[in-house]
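Appendix B.2, paired examples.
Example (i):
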Amino acid sequence: MTMRIFIFGAGYSARAFARSIAGEAEWIGGTTRTEAKFAGLRAAGIEPFAFDGTDVSAGIAAELERTTHLVVSAGPNEAGDPVIAAASGRILNSMPNLRWIGYLSTIGVYGNHDGAWIDETAECKPRAGRSDNRREAEKEWEALAERRGVPLAILRLSGIYGPGRNAFVNLANGTARRLVKPGQIFNRIHVDDIAGSLAHLARAETGGIYNVTDDEPAPPQDVVAFAAELMGVEPPPEIDFETAELSPMARSFYGENKRVSNAKLKAAGYRFVQPNYREAFRTMWTDDKWR
């Protein structure tokens, strides 16, 4: 069936999705806050629209009437989800062709689980602030999708990396650090698998909550060391987390420790392009796709 896709918040992940599904979609539109970013959206195959988080323009409203698949990547704030605030009435009453909604969230909604393996049934105990706001936004979208009667896929993303955003870049520009906190594990996902899983769920118009994370949660210092080995450079020295100079926000990330399972997404038929950081890094380095 024909797909006309509209993306609220056409950033790094959403642009990768647009590129991956361009040959299957009749049309793809998306928003950014400033016209200065319009050229980047067009390069990704997205017709650009400005959205400041408050008002839906006449142009966006007209396209929403024709939209079949709605993707939301814009983040919430203390006031709630900006897309729901600006467009919930249109989603309920003025999108006659809408068949599916995809919402990009974060595994941050789970909070800390002391390194244990968790899946989508785990208790959500997000930190106050961004993660808590995201969980509340998930609930708002669940309620809206139920009222509208369309499937909603919530994709809970782990730490995102890919071209331009990876340990190679950090090593090259001298910002890479190897912080060591014994027992600390982080989860990560290559942007190609965010794009691929979103496209997979959109094609099938599948709803539900899905963890989008690779097969191998790993200590962050190991990832930096592996990238340095591939580059043939010395890794930065290990730094004890307890004595490291970190911003409060950076330190707070280390307060969450969990191993997140992707079994449900695999059971839905998705096969990962980059199943772990080692394979992804080898590919990025060999193919020169890390910059």
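Example (ii):
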Amino acid sequence: MTFNESAVLGRTGLKVGRLGIASGYCAPTAAVLEAFERGCNYWTWGTVVKGFSAHLREAIKTVAARGQRDRLVLAMFSYAHHRGLTEHFFRKGLKNAGLDHADVLILGYFSKRPSLKLIDGALELKKQGLVRFIGMSGHNRKLFAALAGDGIFDVFHLRYSAAHRGAETETFPSIGGESRPGIVSFTATKNGRLLNPKKMPPGEAPATAADCYRFVLSHPAVDVCMMGTKSLEQMRENLKVLDGGPMSAEELARMRRLGDFVHRRP
């Protein structure tokens, strides 16, 4: 088994590549399109001005012009926490991208349950056909488990890495079955700390970005691992992950050892 095989994003039924592309790192358009051809079709994009990436916008327009929009799974993020502002920026984001709908609207970031007004607004956008599925992002692992039973959210974005493994006991066991939400993980490198030689235990080499992505994807609960890529060279290096598969027991143990060391230190 390799990570070249697509996953099904929970109950959405959407087929997604195992590595996702985040707009905030401003990967060049050519890099994004190369990854798309390798199956990396889950892209996230902010709905406010500072969340826009011109490179990703051009990639979206190129994919649509090629008649491949149905292969793209675009998740648009809203951080407004307000029904009216969420709709305003969401519609503006669609217009900016030249699209008539997004595949997922992610409400983020939340440490507690979103307000009913905000949820109702998101569901109204879904009813109007402007978005197909609703998701949520945050760091409160127990909240995801509680919300899963409501059946409102189709996708969860959560933090998971070798240094933040709480989801293994607090989230993943409570989210399963045929109607489970899709699981997308972020901060696989713990904001680069797992890659930093100065943050490692004595005598240990740091992890690579590929190591971090493989660790996350080795957990069967994770559908997509988001990657932060700034250049074509970085993208090509990351795409090598797709040719591999789950880590061995020895590799997983090493990543956990590094993760524990990093987690204990500021």
